[in-house]
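User: As part of a screening pipeline, I want to sanity-check one entry by hand. Below is the sequence and the SMILES for S-adenosylmethionine. Please return the complex as structure tokens so I can compare it with the automated output.
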Amino acid sequence: MGGRGRSRTQRKHFKQSRENVWKRSKPNPQQHSNDGSDNNDDNSNPTWQPFATNNAAFDDYYKEQGIVPPEEWDKFIEFLGKPLPAAFRINSSSHFCSDIRFQLQNDFVKSLQPEFIGGDEAEALRPLPWYPENLAWHSNFSRNQLRKNQTLERFHEFLKQANEIGNITRQEAVSMVPPLFLDVHTDHFVLDMCAAPGSKTFQLLEIIHRCNKAGSLPSGMVVANDIDVQRSNLLIHQMKRMCTANLIVTNHEAQNFPGCDLNKNRPRASEGAAKTLGINQLLFDRVLCDVPCSGDGTLRKAPDLWRKWNAGMGNGLHGLQLQIAMRGISLLKVGGRMVYSTCSLNPVENEAVVAEILRNCGDSVELLDVSNELPQLVRRPGLNKWKVRDKGIWLGLYKDVPKHRRSVVIPSMFPSGRSYADSPDDSYDNGLEETERNGSNVDPACGSQIASSGSVPSSQVIQGEHSSLPLERCIRIVPHDQNSGAFFIAVFHKRSPFPVGREKNDNQHGDLHQRNCEVPEAISGEVIKSENNSDINPADDTGKLKKATQDASLVDEEVHEVDLMDERCKISEENGSGEQQGNEVFCPEKSGDKTKLQIQGRWRGVDPVILFKDETIINHIKAFYGIDDSFPLYGHLVTRNNDNNHVKRIYYISKSVKDVLELNFQVGQLKIASVGLKMFERQTSRDGNASPCSFRISSEGLPLLLPYITKQILHASPVDFRHLLQYNTVKFENFVDAEFGEKASQLMMGCCVVVLREDVRAFSDPMRVNLSTVAIGCWKGRSNMTVMVSTIDCQDLLERLEKCLWSGDTISMQETDTDVSPVQDAQDIKPSDATKIVVREDANGAEVEEEIDAVAPEGVE
Ligand SMILES: C[S@@+](CC[C@H](N)C(=O)[O-])C[C@H]1O[C@@H](n2cnc3c(N)ncnc32)[C@H](O)[C@@H]1O
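Assistant: Here is the complex for your manual check:
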């Protein structure tokens, strides 16, 4: 991940994701700038123009929809034209969560204030009042301002470093809201249907891991799914900072996400298997349905969208959004909660989808009133009335839709959802010209006949329908209420099983399978993918999108896997995967037989997930590190390579993930991109001074394993710990505490763990590991000890310990004149400075690539 080998496509993708940058644009007399950003220097160059921050079609559309009361319109538009303030979350699972919050509250809030020149906000930096425990923050400085002087620069550096280390996550404030309404508990199974790049997945995992004890794992888990493989890679990279064993990343079309129902898919195997499996169907306590959308709620951070915006964008996504949401409901346990959210203002993508879900599900699903939850979050109720705009025409009722547009504009887009199929006056397509019927009501953005400003003359007002459903329970967040982006959220509760066959409870709602095939120009920068991962090009391939949307199953109809079994067994035999490797028995139908199934054989290009059961290797690792028997290793280790001799990484999975994988070993439906916590990595040495153990403990896996390690572990005094971080390599004789140096020299060659013993006065006490215990992975060489932590992590740890430990009264760090030169033993395995590229969000939420130094012993990937 993240190496230099990243493809051109991916780099291009990152570049395209960069937002709030100034771009060369063609002068457009119809558009004016309302920028208000601090990039004024560039105005001197007439060829560089700021993004226009208006669009006549946008104004017409949302004025007509009554998205805000008329008296608020100007303020609404004014805020949409302003750059978005930066927001970030402190990662509650971070070692230094409290320190960071303390630093923000007691240092930066005060030191930044004098640098701040008012505006809409009184404070330079403030916690978001609705986010629990002051863990989310809002900063009113733009990136350029942050480079202005030393105080701001210090804050900027703090943000950059904390983000890289994983102590904070930059995330748009409103995007933090949906996971909070999910009411996730630590034992929940959560499905994040459209998860990439993963900011909400990160939040969900934080909640799952809340109140974790050192060395223990929660009983819940998260499945993070996204159709886009590149975006999923970003998610996987981000989640590494979380160090979680409770996550599975999958790549499915969310509308076709498999249900893994053993009874339906493996009826013959289910009886026996059901007894031994933890679960026999993949259902979730919570589902987050943060669907692809037109994204006009992000106009403040992505102003290039102003130019592209048109009403067809929302219409084109409605069908897909509905299918994804319906699939989410069907995968939800009875009693479970689902949040549907978009970063769009458009009622066709929002209330219309919610209304159709309620119509489809009847009494089995309730739209929750969450007005008592997060009371400090300012929100607006959902709309009960809206219209549909197609090709510049306002449509109040489905029966007004011209016949030739009925494959595009579907009944569920309208408030009543009615198709008027039985209505005698279903006769719109009677030869009337659109202009005759609609007068000047033509969208200039569509280039139709009349390029007027487009507002509907009062004499020709099209009457919209009114929904009687309780759509006011939906939440719409608008920018000018709390200086944020816009978002839409609806919270559902599943009261009873989804009635099978109730895709439509009457014919009046039209055929949901008759999908909208008009594809939007831009879908928040996202590419829609088909299941086999080929891009669906919105511009020229409407057929594929139509197919993708048509294939959605609204009830829990499984893809029947049984027929695939024989073929898979064949593939597996050809690949030589199987019992001789000592790994998972993969072909349940033939268990006991020597034929084994490479369970992910059908997912081309995706490595299989193999339960790692090689006792020789596991026992060796256990013995080398003295891993206590109370830590369950057997059954909790997986690899992506079925040849044990070439296994490079071994991942640890929680009991919950294990249950899901075991079910998947039976039904074989999940296309798993990533699973588990990287715990052991194979190491090799060039000079033959190999460690007796071929696997080192990875830094991600160390916190979980730490309380159970009894060998290859030393407790360093603060001064020696600091020297290790400072100099990276320290000779045994140069440790200040000679006893520590002596003990270090007696360790076995290879990976070891050094724990910071904070209290020097309790130096002889038995070590007690808790969540705040600081430990690092090191390499014990012939004559020295080398730290195996990236340079940036070392630096951050040094700075934090400097602040909260060594500068405090408890321990006063004494400088010694001991010669602790950063000399490396040439004979030893040396750390090689490899540069890796990490992707992070910038202050405006855009993804940027940055290079960091990673330190790893040679031969170790
Ligand atoms: C609004 S973004 C999700 C943002 C994400 N929840 C977060 O907080 O970081 C929508 C995502 O849906 C994905 N997507 C688009 N079509 C999809 C489909 N049919 N099935 C699953 N994911 C899809 C896109 O790749 C994109 O990553």
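Points to compare against the pipeline: The chain has a mean pLDDT of 75. The longest strand covers residues 332-342.
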